[in-house]
Amino acid sequence: MELNPRQLDAFRKVMLTGSMTIAAERLRVSQPAVSRLIKDLEASLGLRLFRREGNRLIPGAEAQRLFREVDLFYRGIEQVEKVAQDLKSVRIGNLRIASLSALALHVLCECVNTFSATHPEVVISLDVRNSLSVLELAGANQIDIGFVHQKNIEYPGVDVYPLQSLPAVCVLRRDHRLAGKETIAIEDFEGESIISLSQNNPLRVRLEMELDAAGIRYRRPIETTLAYSACNFVRGNLGIAVIDPFTARHFSDPDVVFRPIAPSIPFECSFVLPAHQPRSKVVEDFIESTKEVFSSAGR
Questions:
Q1: Computed over its alpha carbons, how large is the radius of gyration of the chain?
Q2: Structure confidence by residue, pLDDT tens digits, 199-226
Q3: Whole-angstrom Cα distance, residue 2 to residue 18?
Q4: What gap in Å lies between CA 265 and CA 205, rounded to an integer?
Q5: What is the tens place of the pLDDT at every residue in 220-266?
Q6: CB count, 10 Å around CB of 294?
Q7: What architecture (CATH level 2) is domain 5-88?
Q8: pLDDT in tens, 128-165
Q9: Nearest to residue 297, comparing CAs of 197, 152, 149, 166?
Q10: For 46-74, how does the pLDDT look when each residue is reduced to its tens digit (9 = 90+)?
Q11: How would CATH label the architecture of 167-266?
Q12: 45: number of Cβ within 10 Å
């Protein structure tokens, strides 16, 4: 026996409304058409589902039992449709993010705040890792999007998309001899104590290339993995530092000032995605939020 979905839909509407006339209105067909669908369903089942008492339509025990099963089926379909619509409009979902600390501590929090304001039901996780770990997670499809401190990189199973480059800044104590300058030249680093970021940090590598090319002599009294810590060491009068513009924007201390560098030393990073995986609308929207924040920072 093969049941006709149109007959079942008509049956459900009659059971819900208690009227063939109202059911016909809901189905946007005529009342005789609904009556025919019910009769055909009864014929297919070999059962009488309704009896009439005056103008009332009374379902029998068989109709009540059938309705429970039919209603469960249609409620399931309606739930699937609701979930599909929610996913389309990004009202639900999950977003797994991994990022280097220079972005995770501040700018990505800003991105998440902006994104969550318009996507309140998306569950977000933010994992702070070094760039290699972020690439490993993306390659293993364990995150939806990652942020790394490189541009021209290749990693198996990972697609890399550079973000807008922004100029790094020099961090100095307000009473430092260079603090009165509007721009710090590479030559100004001569003889200075430079608080360094970790050895493999691309910003440190780029800075030291510029210093070495210019023949600048300098000291490295202390090294740290966090730009925020570098700012605190500057405040403690341990030297000067070169850091990303996002940390500089959020570090607030009356004893510390930030100055641009000439020639500019770019702070470069990229977002990475697992390769060969379709992008959800959640990820697409978060990418747009991130690009907007980077664009605003560069203005």
A1: 32
A2: 888 899 999 999 999 999 999 999 998 9
A3: 25
A4: 10
A5: 999 998 999 999 999 999 999 999 998 998 899 999 999 999 999 99
A6: 19
A7: Orthogonal Bundle (1.10)
A8: 988 889 999 999 999 999 999 878 788 999 999 998 88
A9: 166
A10: 888 888 877 678 888 888 998 888 888 88
A11: 3-Layer(aba) Sandwich (3.40)
A12: 16
CA dist 273 and 139 (Å) reads 8
**Was domain 93-165+268-297 assigned CATH 3.40.50.20?**
no
Mean pLDDT of all residues in the chain? 89
**Tokens matching residue 181:** 């300058």
Domain 93-165+268-297 shares a fold with domain 167-266: yes
What's the token pair of residue 226? 């966090």
Rounded to the nearest angstrom, the gap between the alpha carbon of residue 92 and the centroid of all alpha carbons in its chain is: 12
pLDDT tens per residue across span 79-101: 777 767 666 655 557 899 999 88
Domain ranges in the chain are 5-88, 93-165+268-297, 167-266
Three-state secondary structure of the chain: CCCCHHHHHHHHHHHHHCCHHHHHHHHCCCHHHHHHHHHHHHHHHCCCCEEEECCEEEECHHHHHHHHHHHHHHHHHHHHHHHHHHHHCCCCEEEEEEECHHHHCCHHHHHHHHHHHHCCCEEEEEEECCHHHHHHHHHCCCCCEEEECCCCCCCCCEEEEECCCEECEEEEECCCCCCCCCCEEHHHHCCCEEEEECCCCHHHHHHHHHHHHCCCCCECCCEECCHHHHHHHHHCCCCEEEECHHHHHHCCCCCEEEEEEECCCEECCEEEEECCCCCCHHHHHHHHHHHHHHHHHCC
Smallest CA-to-CA distance from 102 within 259, 241, 236 is with 241
